């Protein structure tokens, strides 16, 4: 029998956290990831679960997630260390039957809790489950350097930020035609910022926390990582363009419309019409 350490979801989290740290997006204990698991994902590994799981209370009831399983990064854990000791830095948990708390089934073997942004993750999971008919299973948060840098110089409006990234790289409109949502600066780790993030997740697969970082979602860890990576690459280009004196030419609205038609996506209208 295989051990849970060899499961696709533990190995996937090891790869994602390692890749994100190598990108420079997750210094110290910055960033967090949650992946919603299906019963069939965890069924082969129940022998590895704690005999007496620890129970923790959620800051607010989330009955929509009752009995759902997740693998999540731990609070205060360094992404660079996940590959060295997944059982210390990751946690598999199950929300209880009424959504008021959760049981720690595996991981955090030296103590601790899931990410302090668990409420924000759960609120966004609920929204994306509805928006994607259950396909989106990942919420990924990191401190992507150039996206943060742009939040200091661009007007903090969804359509303005989206248009800048679309113009930064041709593939961006195809990868995130729904654009970028932005929440006002708020204290992280609170229910309030989770509510605002989830509201933006109703319409956008990328949500920016100005001066802090980015949230991305998708069906798989690769999809969420690739989404953030694409946006961050464009942000890096636009940071360099601004440092060289700004744009002399760029992609036009007409060209963005043509791009959407070619790849069969419907771009965010307010960003096209700027």
From TrEMBL:
Key words of the record: Cytoplasm, Lyase, Metal-binding, Rhamnose metabolism, Zinc
Residues involved in Zn(2+) binding: 141, 143, 212
Cofactor note (record): Binds 1 zinc ion per subunit.
Enzyme class, UniProt record, top EC level: lyase
Cofactor or coenzyme needed: Zn(2+)
Positions of the catalytic residues: 117
Assigned protein family: Belongs to the aldolase class II family. RhaD subfamily.
Function description: Catalyzes the reversible cleavage of L-rhamnulose-1-phosphate to dihydroxyacetone phosphate (DHAP) and L-lactaldehyde.
PANTHER family on file: FUCULOSE PHOSPHATE ALDOLASE, RHAMNULOSE-1-PHOSPHATE ALDOLASE
Protein known as: Rhamnulose-1-phosphate aldolase
Organism: Limnobaculum parvum
Gene: rhaD
